[in-house]
Write a structure and sequence with these properties.
The structure holds two protein chains of two kinds. Chain A is mainly alpha-helical. Helix content of chain A is 75%, strand content 0%. Chain A is flat. The N and C termini of chain A lie close together (8 Å). By secondary structure, chain B is α+β, with helices and mostly antiparallel strands. Classes of the chains: A mainly alpha, B alpha+beta.
Chain lengths: 305, 541
């Protein structure tokens, strides 16, 4: 077990290094630089800036300087926001994004697992049709439409929630629902198909033959096995929900970190692009790792090797 | 099939869950108290240090937090700021400012001419990374040499005569220098605060020392900045607002909803699609002239666009009325010239002279076709596919699509549209790797020269590749002219050349849109998009 964990951690670091290297190279290969702003800077000013941020050094020197900083968790200064460090992008934005993300994942599981199960059990009945109709909508409607629609109805028309911000607990509700939309729909469908598959297995037939009640079969025998695909998808879903969403944060004016995934690239804010990507990648590989550990707990057929 | 009643039950259940969520949570905050306002801004500025940033999103902060030697009043006229008065030498090169005796920083310490010299020399230190350094290097004696590491500090023409007297010596008698001086790069910064934390003094309210009508009390990345009245401002008695909460709301539609629900008291950048409705139905909506022109850069180094006849044909084939009324939907002034209205000399707006160009805001199809034929493309025959480039932006997208249609229909040529993100787009424009591309200019100071200098051969913002020694010589002559009346005459000649050659295709002079709750009085938004709350107050609703 310990040997396995050590091996996994080593491979996680290798993955992260590849992410760092590829991001660095890709980022430097797109045209435009961090000082391409609203207007062109006089040459002497641009020269001074390039020198100030050490962008005049050869690329490999810049890369190793960056990695050196990374080893002590220093993501460097933002090239766009004067005086801000990229660490701050995360310390200022992540708490809100992760809070919202956690609420979303709880909300999602709370609804998706029962809904998916009902759908599977009542397969072909009206409950199934309704739930699958809603789930298909949830997958196809983009989050900005859901967010705008929720805001229009519940904030603007009914006035139940504030239009923007999270100055009160209420402020979290609409962003949480809008953020959950896709994963809620996706996990509901996944749960349904997974449970349906399990219900067709031989051991379920055996259980039925033994005369167990249908509820008993689902709860005791089917559910645990049906959860495995859901747990698999939960890792990446958690990583993406915790780090925030550009669209949701923009529409509800939330000061999270999701916004930086898009703006740092538009700004060519090199250190911010790197920092945000690495942070996301780290959470992602960590979540995948945790999920793998979880497998063992819920499925005795899987052994860590 | 789902029965109607069962469907109703399900819908009711979903609603009940949502109601449950709605009923928990805190009580709604009471409406804005007297003297406090919440104002939404569309973007976070890249910095708050007046010596460093040139970001237009920093403007609302710079205007409330700092005050330079001169400033603007509500009419957009230059008035004394930190300087009580000033004299200009007969050759127009030496400016001597008498500072007010009661100037203080927001921490109560006195502010003197020495602070001004420190602040301006800091801008000229390449290590500072001042984006607007050229607003000093171009004008002040010895500044360019010092900035480039080729001249001594002592020979820079910024001298402290005594605590209350500052002298600035210029290379040439630029007749619009006071406008340059009103830019925030000339604002004073507090030496102690800056030196204690050169990179981060504006990140913490405790070290963010300013000298304007307001000071910073809270600053949260991505969320907003809260300002409060600066009791040590020299004219603090006139400042009536206790607090301004600048909140970043990136999505204009959200800002509009929040405004209409009374969650905020105002915001900039009203969504274009809502303007027609707001213009007729809202007493909070204002549309004000801006000192800016939207034009399309033309690559004058590339055939067939190197031929002025082709450029003129393209310029005349556009129906600007239609572009403004149906696409932009915000009232703007159609133009073929460069300078936007707003600069008044001797009671006459500079742009009154545009009448002589005999320009029609409707498309002049016949004339355009004739010019295109003269250039060797009768009825558009043989004209290469025109590539019309723009950057990701919803309004510009609609604009280029309308232009494409007009050119294809009126000139019988093929137009291809190309879109890129701003950084890639702008890099291509600068390398002259384009045919025609969306661009424009917002003036830095209220003087025609902010526009006319754009198209000299040496201008960093001349992206048209336009080079004309006659144009350059006339601009240089204007900078050296001390008589303002003669300068105006010279500038008209410069613009005549512009309209003759059309290095770019102008569409319209811009306007600024703003929503401000009607109970807020005496705010000002000048043509340079400077937003001032120093005289604002709240009248009970």
């Amino acid at each position: 077990m310990i040997w396995y964990i050590a091996k996994r951690i080593a491979s996680m670091f290798a993955t992260l290094f590849v992410v760092v290297l590829l991001t660095f190279l890709l980022m430097h290969s797109i045209p435009g630089g961090p000082f391409t702003a609203e207007r062109r800077l006089p040459e002497s000013v641009e020269r001074a800036l390039v020198k100030k941020y050490k962008l005049d050094a050869p690329l490999h020197v810049q890369f190793f300087d960056y990695v050196k900083g990374l080893l002590v968790f220093d993501l460097g200064p933002s090239f766009k926001y004067e005086g801000r460090s990229v660490n701050e992008f995360i310390t200022e934005g992540f708490p809100l994004s992760s809070r919202l993300g956690l609420m979303s994942i709880v909300f999602t599981l709370f609804l998706a697992l029962p809904l998916g199960s009902i759908s599977a059990i009542k397969s072909g009945k009206w409950q199934d049709i309704l739930i699958m109709f809603l789930a298909t909508m949830g997958i196809t409607i983009p989050s900005f439409v859901i967010a705008t629609g929720l805001m229009y109805v519940f904030s603007f028309r009914l006035g139940w929630f504030p239009v923007f911000g999270v100055s009160s607990v209420k402020g979290y509700i609409l962003p949480m629902i809008a953020l959950s939309g896709y994963s809620l729909a996706f996990i509901t469908r996944l749960m349904r198909s997974s449970l349906l598959e399990v219900m067709g297995q031989d051991y379920i037939r055996t259980a039925r033959a033994k005369g167990l009640s249908e509820t008993g079969i689902v709860l005791k025998h089917a559910l645990r096995n049906a959860l495995i695909p859901v747990v698999t998808i939960l890792g990446p879903t958690l990583a993406s929900l915790l780090t925030g969403s550009f669209v949701i944060e923009k529409i509800f004016a939330l000061p999270g970190m999701g916004i930086h995934f898009v703006t740092s690239i538009a700004n060519r804010d090199y250190t911010a692009i790197m920092g945000i990507t690495i942070f996301y990648a780290t959470i992602l590989v960590a979540m995948v790792f945790i999920v793998d550990i979880f497998y063992v707990m819920i499925d005795p057929r899987i052994k860590l090797q | 099939m789902l029965s109607r009643r069962k469907f109703m039950y399900s819908a009711a259940a979903i609603l009940a869950v949502l109601t449950l969520f709605a009923s928990c949570g805190a009580k709604k905050v009471a409406p804005v108290a007297t003297g406090k306002i919440v104002f939404a801004l569309q973007s976070e500025p890249d910095g708050y240090d007046p010596g460093i940033t040139n970001n237009s999103f920093a403007s609302p902060f710079m205007n409330q937090l700092f005050e330079g030697l001169v400033t603007y009043n509500a009419l957009g006229e230059i008035v004394p700021g930190n300087a009580e008065s000033w004299t200009i030498s007969p050759d127009g090169k030496v400016y001597t400012f008498a500072l007010r005796k009661n100037l203080k920083w927001s921490n109560g310490k006195p502010l003197t001419a020495k602070d001004y010299r420190y602040s301006l020399m800091r801008v000229l230190d390449p290590k500072t990374g001042a984006r607007y350094a050229d607003m000093l290097t171009v004008y002040v004696v010895g500044a360019e040499e010092y900035f480039g590491g080729k001249g001594p500090k002592e020979s820079v023409g910024i001298k402290v005569i005594n605590d209350y007297s500052l002298q600035i010596t210029l290379k040439e008698p630029a007749p619009y220098y006071l406008g340059i001086l009103a830019m925030w790069v000339y604002s004073p910064v507090n030496q102690q605060a800056v030196e204690a934390s050169p990179e981060r003094w504006t990140m913490d309210p405790a070290t963010f020392i300013s000298n304007g009508p307001f000071k910073v009390v809270s600053i949260k990345m991505g969320e907003g900045v809260v300002l409060q009245k600066n009791e040590f401002y020299w004219n603090a008695d006139a400042v009536k607002l206790a607090e301004i909460n600048f909140r970043f709301i990136l999505e204009p539609a959200t800002a509009l909803s929040a405004f209409e629900k009374g969650e905020i008291d105002g915001f900039r950048e009203v969504p274009a699609s809502d303007i027609p409705r707001l213009r007729t139905g809202s007493d909070a909506f204002h549309i004000l002239p801006a000192f800016g022109t939207t034009f399309y850069d033309v690559n004058t180094t590339k055939k067939p666009y190197s031929d002025p006849k082709v450029r003129r044909a393209l310029a005349l084939a556009l129906d600007r009325d239609e572009l403004i009324d149906n696409v932009l939907q915000a009232p703007s002034t159609p133009t073929i010239a460069l300078v936007a209205p707003g600069y008044v000399f001797g009671g006459v707006d500079f742009t009154e002279a545009h009448k002589k160009y005999g320009f029609s805001s409707k498309a002049s199809v016949e004339e355009a076709k004739k010019l295109l034929a003269e250039a060797g493309f009768p009825d558009g025959k043989g004209f290469p596919v025109l590539e019309l480039s723009y950057y990701t932006n919803a309004t510009v997208k609609k604009m280029v699509e309308a232009m494409q249609q007009m050119w294809e229909k009126n000139l019988n040529i093929k137009v291809k549209i190309k879109v890129q993100d701003w950084a890639i787009y702008y890099a291509g424009i600068q390398k002259l790797d384009y045919d025609i591309g969306a661009m424009g200019w917002g003036g830095d100071y209220l003087h025609p020269m902010t526009f006319l200098q754009l198209f000299t051969s040496s201008s960093t913002n001349n992206n048209a590749g336009y080079k004309n020694p006659e144009y350059d010589a006339l601009v240089a002559k204007t900078i050296n002219e001390t008589d303002p009346a003669k300068a105006v005459e010279l500038m008209h000649q410069v613009e005549d050349i512009f309209v003759r050659d059309l290095p770019v295709i102008s569409l319209y002079s811009r306007s600024n849109t703003i929503m401000v709750a009607p109970y807020i009085k005496n705010w000002a938004l000048t043509a340079l998009a400077n937003l001032y709350f120093k005289d604002a107050y709240i009248e009970k609703k």
